[in-house]
Pseudouridine synthase (Paenibacillus lacisoli), 302 residues
Amino acid sequence: MSWQGSWKRRGEWLEVTPGKALTGSDNKEEAALVWMQNVLGMPDKLLRKLRHEKGIQVAGDRLRLSLFKEAPLGIEPRWFELEVLYEDDFCLVVHKPAGMKVHPDGSREDGGVTLDHAVASYYQMNGLEVPVRHVHRLDSDTTGPVLYAKNDFAQAILDEQMRAKTIGREYAALVEGTVSPGLTVIDEPIGKDRHHNQRRRVSPSGQHAVTRVSLGEVLHGASLVHLKLETGRTHQIRVHLSHAGHPLLGDVLYGGPAMAIARQALHGELLIFRHPLTGEAITVEDPWPADMQELYQSLKLI
């Protein structure tokens, strides 16, 4: 479901022109509700909220929806220089650096700046009163793009895309050994490791997990692989590649060799999602960070 027509933001209001869906109906308000559900994919809960708050206005052939109402950030702003990869009125995609959590998780290590804190600061500095809501997460030491929803409507649509597994996430990893071109998919369930609180492991009683693998290049004692996730289990790529005999370089938790990179050599290089309103396919690329580039160059075969 998507809106292929033109739209404008006017303050807190989104203005669209549904066309015959309104002009061809005697009861325009009822027609607007049907159009919002069938074309925009507006969730029932949000539709009820908009009706209750008088956030739906019909004027002639125009429909105005109060989608951009100001609301608290929900988390303390803490400044950190963000790298913004994509932004509009509905979505924000930012680069997550290594060593930064996406959000506070209540652990003893909390207290520093997380990506959510930094996004709150970015919103504040740009005069936005928008709740900070990430759509997906990355491990603390994994770099790459993280998607944020900037209003209730965007969050509902993007959360549904996550549930339907239609948000594409592609990664690059530097792993130990020579990966066979025949290794194209790892379909192994993942569960908790009873002997180590932080670890996960392949377990028959674990959750379904599928990682697609593509060999990019054979390096000196290592390989560059590109990966696509069909599921999003904790540490999925790290567990699957370790299980396949090719742990990530620097990933000592899962048997990888210690390297100068001082973290697992894993980077999210591509994020693909459909725009919440228009349905347009948005592709966001995130260039490799310096530590991955340096490690790759040091491993290239001469």
